[in-house]
Design a protein that fits this description.
By secondary structure, the protein is of the alpha+beta class. It is 42% helix and 26% strand.
Length: 319
């Protein structure tokens, strides 16, 4: 039987070897294909990784740059002594500024006490600066008399030449309760001037003022329209007169014009309490100049009250 197998093997050896050769070629081919395919896939993954990283990081960087240029405005949070958006006071202030913007004398006569021609003229002069008062937010605390409040109003005001609202802390309102238990805005602010000054100097109000100013400066740094609006110098419209003021060599002038949003300080120092804010184009009367500071007075057009304090010379156009 072994001889028969040997004879069969001898007769079919070439076929067996040919078959083995074919199988070997197929195996080698498969191995080469997998090797090439695997390398290509790995290379493709690596190349894909190289392309994907910039593709995903570039938009992220782009978004990051865009976010750094875009200021998201929001009303500041209230400090401990301030109540934010007390319902009745918020509704009253929203009604007031809507009526101011529309010059709705009929509505204003029902919510401002007293309302007369002088108050009307001063109130509507706000429209010379602001086209509308958006996103009104109120911050209030107890006022100078029983059942009264002092209300600070944040608004994103619309001004000419700027597409978006400009964060503004409007001068505070004194809200009183009338004999008929109605809440009204008092236009007779002179009698409350000392209280307003004291309230403005409180830490919570200072914090509120600083935050609104921070938002404004951030917006000015990212929005060319706001920057141009802020740096637009306006002539004071009057001749400046100069005279010696005595031993301190201080100088007395006529008027000056604010060239930017700037704080009015209680003393000639950045450490002074903030008594109010001047806006670009607002004209003030100058009491004296003292080094880098100017002692000014001005009449609030919306209330008729007089504010006196110090402003850095770099924010005033004198003469």
């Amino acid at each position: 039987m072994l001889d028969n197998f040997r004879e069969w093997l001898s007769d079919n050896l070439r076929y067996i070897l040919l078959g083995l050769a074919v199988i070997l070629v197929v195996i080698i081919g498969i191995c080469i294909f997998r090797l090439i395919g695997g390398s290509g896939s790995s290379s493709g993954k690596k190349e894909s990784g190289k392309q994907t990283t910039p593709a995903t990081s570039a938009p992220a960087d782009s978004d990051s740059q865009e976010e750094s240029k875009t200021v998201s405005l929001s009303a500041p949070s209230a400090g401990e002594s301030l109540t934010q958006n007390e319902e009745d006071l918020l509704a009253l202030c929203q009604k007031y500024y809507k009526a101011v913007s529309a010059e709705d004398e009929q509505t204003l006569a029902t919510i401002v006490e007293p309302w007369n021609d002088k108050v009307k003229e001063e109130t509507f002069s706000l429209n010379d600066k602001f086209r509308s008062f958006d996103n009104i937010t109120t911050y209030s605390k107890a006022g100078p008399v029983d059942d009264s409040w002092i209300v600070y109003v944040y608004s994103e005001c619309r001004v000419d030449g700027v597409d978006r609202g400009v964060p503004t802390l409007l001068l505070p309102q004194i809200v009183i309760t009338t004999d008929s238990s109605d809440k009204k805005i008092s236009s007779d602010r002179d009698q409350y001037a000392s209280f307003i000054e004291e309230s403005n100097a409180s830490s919570d109000v200072q914090q509120l003022i600083d935050e609104v100013n921070r938002q404004y400066e951030e917006l000015k740094g990212s929005d060319d329209q706001v920057k141009n609006y802020s740096s637009d110098d306006t002539s004071s419209g009057g001749e400046a007169s100069t005279e010696a003021a005595g031993g301190n060599a201080a100088t007395s002038y006529g008027t000056a014009t604010a060239t930017d949003n700037v704080n009015i300080r209680s003393e000639a120092s950045t450490n002074g309490a903030v008594l109010g804010t001047l806006y670009p184009g607002q004209e003030v009367s100058i009491v004296s100049t003292e080094g880098d500071w100017t002692h000014i007075t001005f009449t609030d057009p919306s209330t008729g009250s007089t504010v006196e304090g110090y402003v850095s010379n770099s924010y005033l156009n004198i003469g």
